[in-house]
Design goal:
Layout: H1 6-17, H2 23-31, H3 36-52, E1 55-58, E2 65-68, H4 72-87, H5 92-103, H6 107-120
Antiparallel strand pairs: 1-2
Length: 135
Amino acid sequence: MENLTPAELSLLRELWKRESASIRDLSEAIYASSTDSKTAAVSKLLQRMTAKGFVVCRRDDRPHLYVAAMSEQEYVQRQLQGLADQHCDGKLAPLATTLVQTKGFNQRQRRQLRDLIHRLWPDEADEGKGGDNDD
């Protein structure tokens, strides 16, 4: 799947906030107006995003409504997997480790991360504090 330009990503973010939106709705949200040139720009961006697989157009509706083809979480997962594929031989652990070490987490964020790991893998959360070698 191709990457999004910053303008396309801002439209996708707007679609994530809504169930669906018309070109005019998106133009007003992004540009604070819906002039012909602004709606034409949004229309062109949506055409490209549809071709890239990020947006779906519901043509049965009038006006046509656009919806995000994936959730924000799915988008982030794809982007992170792409980074892992490109820089870490497809492995997510080195990417996650680097992110945590580089950005540094405050106490609340570390607690949230521990809670998330415990929720996702409750039987593994307290095992072998020496670490495991699974990739």
